[in-house]
Amino acid sequence: MNLHAKDSCPDSGAVVFQRGSIYMTTDNEHSGTLRTDYEADLARLDDFPALTADWRTLLHQLIRASRVSLLLPLLENNVLTVMADIRRKKLSGYGNTFADAQGTAKQIYYAAKLQKDIEGWVVRLENYLNNTWQTDSNSNSAVEIARQLKELLEQSLPNGSEADKRSYYRMLRTVTDLQSNTDRYLKQAEESGDTEPALSLLIAYLKNYGNVADAFNSRLADLPGIYRRDILHAVPKAIEQDRTYVVITPTAEAEAFTLPQGMSFPAGQNAAGEDLIYRTEKEAYICPMQCTEVNAVYASVKEAFGLYKQSIPLQNITTARSLFAHGEELRIGWQITSPMLVLSEGEREVNIRFRLTADSPVPNILVENSFFLQLSTAEGWTQQSATCRIDGHCLCFTFTIGSKDIASASCIEEIHGATTEYPALRILTNNTNSPYLWAKKLNFEAVEIQTKVIGIRNFTFCNELGEVDTEQQFSPFGIQGDCGAWFLFGHEELELKPLQEVRLKGHWKKMAGTEAEFNELYQEYGVDASSFIVVTEYQKGGSWHSYTGNKQPLFVSDSEEKHSLAQANILFDFSTDAQAAYEYSRERDGFFRVTLQAPSIGFGTDAYRNRFTSIMIENSRCKEKKRKPLPKEPTVPMLADVELSYIASEVITLTDTGTSSTRLEHITALSDQEAFPLDGNMTQPFLPASPADHLLYFAFLNAKEERTIRMYVDMVLPEERIPYDIPQPDQSAQLAWEQWNGTGWGTLPVEMVVAEETAGLTQSGFIEIELPEKVTDDRMDKQGRIWLRASVTGDISACLAIRSIRTNCIRVKAQNGNGTPLPAGTIREMAEEDQRIASVVQPLSGFGGTPEETETQFAAHQSARFHNRHRAVTMKDYEQLVLEHFPEIDKAQCVSYPPGQNPAAVNLMVFSRMEDCRYFLSSPWKLAEIQRLIRRYVSPFVRLKVVNPSYLRVEVRCKVVLWDKVKDEARTLRQLTQIVWNYLAPWQRKGDLPTFRQSYSYKEMHARLANHEDVMRLSLLEVNGKSLPHVDYNTEDILIKGDMPWSILLPDIKKIEALSPHDGIEEAEIGGNFIIG
């Protein structure tokens, strides 16, 4: 065994106080076990000597035991015994201990102690030389050795004028050199042949005793092995071969295939210079399927309830971010694609009514801005200003397109992300006042779309003379305007929609202005304004058809006193039989005809000519006094400012969606707001109910005809949660899986989840899911991807960040390695080329391997076994068990709860540089693994909890006034920042492990900042919102410490601000408007 000598330098662990300063205080409770201390405590059982057999060691021990016995005169003054004493002097650590004691009383003590030992050896050697001179035996080799030793030791002693430091190191160096040559000196002195007979007899006796002791020890040679093997069960650990993951990417032409077990992957060379080989441990199925997109969808209530979508990058990730955070607004709802939305011009009003089922809980009041609408135009998706209201038992959306606004347009892939036959309208949620909580409870059974369009000017107009330019005045009934004259008009929108009303409006020109004038004009023809009747018809299937109430007056006077006939208004009213005449499945031509049915004279062109001729003939036969007045010539009226308007309405029940030209589709949380068809149910929820508040969507490409989905999810600690908000092992989450079937989500039973190694996304691992059937085209989106959805429940804060998701990821194991982890990127190919494989990548470093246990490590384990016997009773037992089984842990420390709290609970805190070398954090799965193993050695009545270091934020704000001479203000502020860090977290600068149970002084921090050479005045120091207005000797200090015993303080410097030397109070300035008196 290695024993520390009694005369070795003690640890310099005393607390040093300096007058006028206040230093941080640290309690002297148990401070945990470092790995360096664990491995330095070497208790060796191999070749353990039950009896000491070395005669030199025995001679030294005999001298020490004979200080007051009769053997002292025989043994003390002899070169052999002096050499034995020098040989046994333990000098390890003397230099460092002496250096640490500089400037203290210990420095003088250490130098005097070593000098005293050397002077004693010199005296003994001098006595030995005097005795040999008296006996004339001063010419043998032993005497020569004694003279050399005496001379060397005397030369190392300090002179009166020498400094203690130089003389100490000279003495230390001399004794160290002598120790390195003691075996040679002892052999020469022993073989000189002039040793005193009594001493020679004693040496012979000790050698004989040593032989006997060797024989005795040899009989017990197997005892340590038996004890170690059968009682302690401690054997040196053999090499545990390293494992790693490789990702196989097949070629584009390759079909799915299986890699057999034992396939080789070269990984450079091992320590012996041989080719290092990794092999597959089992068969691996390789297919073209790839995970191309992952989205996290969640409901957030931080400010106001809303839905958010976080896109998870899967490649070239520098910093993985927490799940269910940093998302963008998610907009879900409906997309309506319909000919009813073909709106080219005019003032266009659209009303969408969702007819709710009787059991839908209709809200009393709707908050504005709950939804927003987007209409497809040639420029893209154009947002529409809309109103949302409850009308009856319908949820209504109304928006208006101004006459100068852009026309709607069908969707095209390049602009809208999809291609549609007709324009589309999107009704999407708005997180400003999210409607999700109440809208998901609504169910509807039909949708009614109504459009009102006013002011269409670009349409087709024809009469018996041909097509007419409606931009100019024209005669709608031709030049003559006879009875039976007609005109027709049409527009493409009228052909597409179930019409309720069509109106042709304009202004009559070149006709009498009022009804009285018009009647006077036609009085002698026996007709008036009411005599002009037109018949309206519509074209269908190449034939003209009339409808109920198709006769109407051509001229209608206004309501004013003048009774003007200037307004032209011809109505086609389909309100009574529109659905029968304009049923969606019937062919429509979209043209309308107006025929002048009465009066029989039409506008009187022929009647005027006949009457004019008759009167002229009659007047030619009469005297002038009896002549009749000539008739007034009627005019065929002209039409100007013509515009078309219409009202159309369509009702689409959910059972009609397969036959109607109107398509009603979901907009879900899937990628790029792709619209998906309905599932064919009689009713639909207005917004889909989510199975959980936190969802993960996975998209897979090239999955056709596949049934098994296997992916490796690489999880890491989220960067932004380090170090204050880190997951703990007692937090857990669960996953429930669903598959998108093309119209909705289908639940996957638990038994179809073959493997789930991530423990609810709290650690890296494989997820393997067996689908109910092979993937077909109807289960894919338009990009050819299938979707899986995972509902995440439980403690969401336990989830780690996703760094990557990889398919075709297989585990390989080293065959001839030494247990060290293989660096990422080492494996790049297979040992034998395979034409089906495009690339081989090793994305992650190796894991799970351990080198063969060294002698030091084995000795440390033996010592730990002696101490704890594989049971955890004391604090050190817990810590040793962790360090024994988990070589990646750098420190373990048991932390007691405050008195009265959890008396049977043990908090075991572990520090590891493996995953995080800044704050020494471990993943929750590693903490859970440690906890499971240590529980095997713990009483069942103990509540064990293995945790990460707990960091506590200390907010610091500071305002300083710098001297005018300071040129680099930024440099000074950086130095002040570093002062705060060095005071509250000195372990970060030194690269040490942090310690807890620390208390810090506000006054000490204040003094350190105020004493900076560039600081004229420290105006404010605020720590966690607290400050002292004045700091002097009598001021009561503020103690800065954690809430719990295991808290580790970490500064969070909010601001260190440099003020002007002339700053006073608020707006007052020293030397300016700051006046006292």
From TrEMBL:
Top-level taxon in the UniProt lineage: Bacteria
Protein name: Baseplate protein J-like domain-containing protein
Organism: Parabacteroides goldsteinii CL02T12C30
